[in-house]
Structure formats: structure tokens, C-alpha cells
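Box 4.2: Ligand-aware structure prediction
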Amino acid sequence: MQSFRLLRTYLGPHRKWAILAPALMALEVAMDLLQPRLLQAIVDVGIPRGDLAFILRTGGWMLAVAAVGLIGGIGCTVCAVLAGIGLGTDLRRDMFGKVQDLSFGNLDRLEAGSIITRLTSDVTQMQELAMMLLRIMVRAPLLLVGSIVMGILTSRTLALLFFFLIPAVLIIVTYVVRKTFPLFARVQACIDRVNTIVQENLAGVRVVKSFVRSDYEAARFGDANDALMQVGVAAARVNAATMPLVMLVFSTGFVATLWIGGLQAFSGGLEVGRIIAFSNYLMQALMSLMMVSMLVMRLSRSEASARRIGEVMAQVPEVPTPTPGDTMTPASRDGRGAAVAFEGVTMRYGDADADPVLRDISFEAMPGETVAVLGATGSGKSSLVHLIARFYDVSEGRVTIDGVDVRRWDERALRAAVAVVPQETVLFSGSIAENIRYGRPEAPQEELEAVAEIAQAHDFICDMPDGYETELSQRGANLSGGQKQRIAIARALLMRSPILILDDCTSAVDVETEARILDGLLAGEAARTCFIVTQRVATAMTAHRILLLDDGKIAAQGSHAELMATSPLYRDIVQSQAPEEDSHAA
Ligand SMILES: Nc1ncnc2c1ncn2[C@@H]1O[C@H](COP(=O)(O)OP(=O)(O)OP(=O)(O)O)[C@@H](O)[C@H]1O
Ligand SMILES: [Mg+2]
């Protein structure tokens, strides 16, 4: 059972509470078991003798026993809650850490909505299981065995009733567990679906509104929500039948006790006090059986959650970190840019039998060189530059930086060496300054402004109400697309990395501003090796060298003049974009 493995691992650090809780519970059970005997003494000894002092004394004992039981009960609950919450907190922390460690390839497959459900709802299931287990694990079996033993001691004849009643409850419980177990796995899957839709809609709220798809999305959400409700109702329906059925067994047991006991009492074989005590033990026994069954149900529900949590924890990052002894960090390059080389690189996403998106790519970028990666949409430009930052690993061949395979680079050193402005801008809530400083929180204000100047962001930032301290709303929603892109460029520039990758990140910036950004980059940062991904010939032309990508292969490489002379495909592209250039020039 995955649930138990998980509990064992995560209750370990909270051992103190996890041991104290059942111990305190044992105290409460002992007290509960004593009560009916004290009651019996009052009925069978105190009352017939008319001994008021005895009755009062025994009553006093009953109160004392109840008080001790109460302390045990409350203490147990407090300890169980502390252990459970501790477990939940640790589990969430570890899962979050795990998700942070995963590679892009892993995250492509795990839906965000599903990760959220696993981190919240599934962890809550485990937390509740832990709490329930610590309270009931000891209470139910002890009370069950204790009640049966005490019941037999109280009356052998009446104890025969256990033979009929316990199997009856067991049959009902088994039925319920078998019915509900598959439902619980479906409940979690339905919550996943609901979370995924909410997640997509929040992220894409502008698209939804602009395409007037609110009704469609509402319907899509409604379907997922209804599905969740239906499974929930199905599970509740089975559960709802349980209680009345078990109560029926209880009542039958109670009536049978009074009837058989009554007959015996008439014939003088049994005192009334014993009948009362026995019926108490009978109820306790059946109640604890109920608790065990509730525990089993909770366990079956948590098992579904434990498996889902286990799936996340078992993910192996697709881009493995190099073994410590095997890492190599190239010698200091004294402010020069880094050399990047691709040697016969082929790359596939996912399975080994998938079609490669990059085929036999070879090229070399000198330190300080600016390389444009030009190609139609889907030609593999982003995939190519992602390999430099090792977001994914190559399937064949190798990528080197300063002659060292990126797979042997220390991960931190590699991240520091390559700054990426991704194709889709991601900003965080917080001030503009915080966003630009994301990679180097300690950078001084002057540097911040210097990179913002190069990224052509300084002027519009100064025009904002609080300048660099202006708060961005979630994902930077209060900025224009081009403004967001320029902040993302400034953020990457601040890293002062020897390699800079701009993945089509000036698409929302007008041509003049884009030209100023590129001029600034190339003028001030001669030491940097720069990759500019673009679909615009005009942008590519500014680079020292152009890699022309066509369907995952390098169709041609060289300077603009060289390509004009040698590549018909390049001439076609220049031709096709020419009218656009002319109209801009005009
Ligand atoms: N995470 C991914 N998982 C699977 N396939 C992917 C993934 N990312 C890209 N692809 C596929 O790889 C191919 C190349 O995609 P890539 O993003 O590299 O193109 P691109 O040249 O950057 O296009 P664009 O100019 O539109 O950004 C496409 O066919 C795409 O479907
Ligand atoms: Mg792309």
C-alpha cells in the first residue's frame, strides 16, 4: 500500500506526536471500558441494598473515570492534528521542490491543473488519513476486543449475539468499500479536470473574452463540474445507505439483548445491571466496528491519492544533472563571449520513435558573434536554442559551450552562462525592479537603468506612476505586450551572461524600437555571444551570421550577402518579405 509507505516516511519527523496520540487514546479506551462495570455495580449492588453512600461513591468514580478519559481523548486529537498537519506541510514542500526540479519534458506531460490537485486535494487526503489513523488505529481495535471480552465476562449467553451481529456489520461494510473504492479514484480525476479548466481559463481569460467563448468555456466547466458532482453523489448515495443499515443491526442487537436478557432475568438467572452493562458493551463493539470500516474507507480513498502523489515524486528529471565528479566548468574566459557548437545534433520530443524536430544540425558560433536563427513557424528555432540552455537534451550528437558538452556543465554554472528571453514573456507579480532583478536580486539601481536603456524600456518605465517601483499585477497584466517583452529583455541582460538568447522576443515591439534594441545590444555588448531567433529577414540581416532553418534542418548558413548569393530559399524569403520592408522604409 502506497499510503502506508508515504505515512511511514512523512510521519517520521513528527514521531513524537504520532506516538503520543495513540498512547493517549489507549487511556481513553481503558476509561470507556470501565464505565459499564461501574454502572452495573450501582444497579446490581447499590440499588438493591439501598446503599446511598455506595451509589454516590461509585458515581463519583464514574465522573473521575470520565474526566481522565476526556483528557486522553482531547490530548489524542491535538497530537493527531499536529502530526497530520506536519505531514501535510512537509509533503507539499517536497512535492513543490520536486516540481521545481523537473525538466521541461516532464512538465510537458504533467498538466498544471493536475499538479495543483495533487499538491492540495490529494495531500489533504493523506493528512486526514494520518489524523484519523492516529485517533482510530488504537481506539477501534482496542475497544472492539475490549468490549467483546468484557461482554463475555458480563454474560456468556448474551455474548452469543456477537456471532450474528458482527458478521452482519462486516457484510455491510465490505459491500460499501467495494462500491466506493473505484469512485474515489474518479473523484480525484474529476477534480483534476475542473482545476485544469480553471487554470486554462485564468491564464487565457483575454483569449476567451475576445473570441466571445465565455459561454463555451462556461459549458465546458459546467460539464466537468457536473461530472464531479455525479461521482460525488454516487459515492454519497452508497455511504448514505450504510448508516441506516448499520443502525438496523444495532437496534436488532439491542432488542435481542433485552428480550433474551429479560427472559433470563425473569427466571432469576441474570441481574438487570448485567443486561444494561452488556448492551453497553454490545453498542461499543458495533460502534468500533463501524469506526474500523470508516477507516478502511478513508484508506481506500487515500490510496488513490497516495498513488497520484507517488506519480509526481517518481518522476525522474528528463535532463539528468551530471554526476558531481564528472562536471566540468571551462576556464575563465575573461569577459569574452563563449563559443557555442552543435555537432550533428538530432532532437526528438518524447519517445525515441517520434519524428525528430531537429536533424543533423552542425554549426559553430564564435565568442562575441551574433547568430540569427531564421525560419518559418514550426521549423525548430525555439527547439534549437533551448538545447543551448539545456532545457531539453539532444537525442544524437552534442552541444558544446567553450568546448565542453552542456551535459557535463555544472547546472548552476550553465544557467549563469546562458540568459534566455523566452518566446512567451513571463513576468511575476511584484515591482518592475523586482522583475528585472529576478536573476540577480543584488544588482544596483544604476545597472538596472543601464540594461533598461538598452532594452528600450527605461523611458516608458519612468513614465509610469511609480517608475521602477510600479507594481505589476499578476503576469504583468497592466503592461502592453511590447512593454512586457522589453522588461524580459532587460531581465536577461542584467544577468551579464556570456551567452544571450532572444527567442522571437521583439515580435510585439515596433520595427524602429526593435532596431534600436538590437543596435544597443550589438554596440555595447561586443563580448557577448548572441542568438537572435526571428522570422523577419530585416532582423536577421543585422547579425554576423544567419542560420536558415527549414523543417528542422539547416538549409543554409552565412552572412546576408553570402546567402543572397548561394541560397535560393533565402532569396525567396527575402523576396516574400520585401513589400513589407518597402512599406516600412516608405
Ligand atoms: N514541448 C514540445 N513537445 C512536443 N513537441 C514540440 C514541443 N515544442 C515544440 N514541438 C514541436 O517541434 C516543432 C518545432 O517547434 P519550435 O517551437 O522549435 O518551432 P519554432 O521554429 O520556434 O516556431 P515559432 O516560430 O512558431 O516559434 C514543431 O513541430 C512543434 O510541434
Ligand atoms: Mg519558437
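In the box above, the bound molecule is magnesium ion. Residues 581-586 have pLDDT under 50 and may be disordered.
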